[in-house]
Design brief:
heterodimer; A: 239 residues; mainly alpha; 12 helices; 0% strand; globular; B: 316 residues; alpha/beta; Rossmann fold; Alpha-Beta Plaits; 4-stranded antiparallel sheet
């Protein structure tokens, strides 16, 4: 546990020492800001909810979250610091978990910046706080899964851009196209793409429902990706 | 402390390390010497559990590097060859981080940090980001990191690369001091370096151990056949059979130099007296008679120069 927090803290320190962190947060705020305007969430007479903003947020997260996680492990490979790290008494699982938690903390901080919109809304109206809470829980669950995939991608290569692509491409498929594919597909494919349709799961949270199927889906896929990441890091010891 | 038995590491068809065995006792300083690409770093990486061996076994402080990897790593202070560090961290932060990974409490870290900062002369840079430090300082931070948890075994991969001459001397002195409490295995491709710091030398080339022993032992082995340089004023045709007639002479080569002849000869033992007597007997003027003492350097260069030669030179 101590090793995991040590790795997490160090990773966060590095993240916030580099300009990437601030660019990512600024980019995210820009996207959600544009969404807030284009969805007309702040129009007079519109319902006081961020639901429309959050509905489109995953489309942006599919690009942004892989960028948060892409450097975590691949940078260790590239700079060779993995040698110093793995010759200290640190287990592979501690490494992966520490990197994952650091990215997740960063993600939560990034998501928290959108609370500004909610506060603005509270000034001018009365948004449903319960539903907003559910929406935030949904976003954090989505983030957990995305970050885990990002860390897995990062463990596969020493090139950050490649790591970004490995994570972003499947996410784009799942988020942007799975609805379309599940409508076009027949038989069991249809069912598969309905289950992996992230927007569909998230929609439940946006409505204010904490949906068990969604919770299980996001947490289990996250655990699965992390498990794979540990195995990838471990495999280096047997090659 | 360190026991290696017929260890091999293959990368595809390339045999980086090919069945080496050695053992290092407690409190010894052992130098791992070899040209670049001889398999030094590969061996050290196996010992520090960074990557597995293809075959063979190794134990450090009684723990097996394959099955008890974490215990082994807790016993080792390792300075990797390229000294990888996070450039954005300050020296103090980095050392604290490394201490935490070794399970040290805050008080332990504070005390031992003060110690290693002083020992590795880091006082001036302890609050500077590592990315701003010169290679020499980074090397010292790496050394400080390896010493931080006071491990029984120190494995240092080329500890003096990139240091200036005075730093090299200081580092050698430091390593010498460390041997009182630690077992040290260090690698180098520079012979004087190992000769100056180590009690025992293991010479490795192309993944095999070609010689090992104390510097004195190795020197004796090398000096077994010594060379003589002789300059005589006489015709080569006369000189050659006369010198060949001396007992123990195995090789005679001459080059004319005006009316003089410069002869290089190899012989068992010291033949200077016999050569001088011969010259005096024949009435040949003699203007140089010198024994070429083979150095470890020659031996090492020979090993580096040709693998075939290296396989025949060593250790009877």
């Amino acid at each position: 546990m101590r090793n995991t927090t040590a790795i997490m803290n160090r990773e966060l320190l590095s993240l916030f020492c580099s300009p990437v962190a601030y660019i990512v947060i600024a980019g995210f705020l820009l996207v959600t800001g544009v969404l807030a305007v284009f969805t007309g969430s702040f129009k007079p007479g519109a319902p006081a909810t961020l639901r429309m903003v959050f509905e489109f947020t995953p489309y942006a997260l599919a690009f942004i979250v892989p960028a948060i996680a892409m450097r975590t492990i691949s940078e260790e490979y590239r700079s060779g610091t993995i040698e110093a790290l793995m010759t200290a008494p640190v287990s592979d699982a501690q490494l992966v978990l520490g990197k994952f938690l650091a990215s997740l903390v960063f993600y939560v901080i990034m998501i928290a910046t959108t609370l500004v919109y909610l506060m603005l809304m509270m000034v001018y109206g009365a948004p449903d706080l319960g539903a907003s809470l559910a929406a935030y829980i949904g976003l954090i669950l989505v983030g957990t899964m995305f970050v885990a995939l990002g860390v897995l991608a990062s463990s596969l290569t020493k090139n950050q851009i490649v790591a970004w692509m490995i994570a972003a491409v499947p996410l784009l498929v799942f988020v942007w196209f799975s609805g379309w594919i599940s409508r076009a597909a027949e038989g069991w494919w249809r069912e598969v793409f309905r289950i992996v349709n992230i927007s569909l799961h998230l929609d439940q949270f946006n409505r204010g429902l904490i949906d068990t199927e969604g919770v299980v889906f996001f947490l289990c896929t996250a655990a699965f990706f992390l498990f794979l990441a540990v195995k990838v890091v471990e495999s280096r010891r047997w090659r | 402390m360190i026991d290696v038995k017929s260890l091999s590491k293959h990368y595809g068809t390339h045999h980086a390390v090919d069945g080496i065995s050695f053992s290092i006792g407690e409190g010894e300083i052992v130098g791992f010497l070899g040209p670049n690409g001889a398999g030094k770093t590969t061996t050290l990486r196996v010992l520090t559990c960074f990557h597995p061996a293809t075959a063979g076994s190794a134990t450090v402080a009684g723990y097996d590097v394959f099955t008890q990897s974490e215990q082994v790593r807790a016993q080792i202070g390792y300075l990797p060859e390229s000294v990888p560090m996070y450039p954005e961290m300050r020296v103090r932060e980095y050392l604290h981080f490394r201490g935490k990974l070794r399970g040290m409490t805050r008080e332990q870290r504070e005390t031992s940090l003060r110690g290693v900062v002083e020992r590795c002369w880091l006082g001036d840079v302890v609050d500077r980001p590592i990315g701003q430090l010169s290679k020499g300082f980074r090397q010292r931070v790496g050394l400080a990191d390896a010493l931080l948890h006071n491990p029984p075994v120190l494995i240092l991969d080329e500890p003096t690369v990139g240091l200036d001459p005075s730093q090299i001397r200081e580092t050698r002195r430091l390593i010498g001091e460390l041997a009182q409490q630690h077992t040290v295995l260090l690698s180098s491709h520079i012979l004087p370096e190992v000769e100056a710091t180590c009690q025992r030398i293991i010479i490795i080339n192309r993944g095999r151990i070609v010689a090992s022993g104390t510097p004195e032992e190795l020197r004796e082995r090398v000096a077994g056949t010594s060379g003589l340089i002789v300059e005589l004023k006489a015709a080569w045709t006369e000189i050659e059979p006369a010198l060949r007639g001396l007992s123990g002479v195995t090789e005679v080569r001459g080059t004319p130099d005006g009316s003089w002849t410069r002869v290089a000869l190899r012989a068992a033992g010291d033949q200077r007296e016999a050569v001088a007597a011969l010259a005096a007997g024949r009435g040949w003027p003699l203007r140089e008679l010198r024994r070429e003492i083979a150095t470890l350097e020659d031996f090492f260069v020979k090993i580096v120069a040709g693998a075939h030669e290296a396989q025949t030179v060593p250790v009877e």
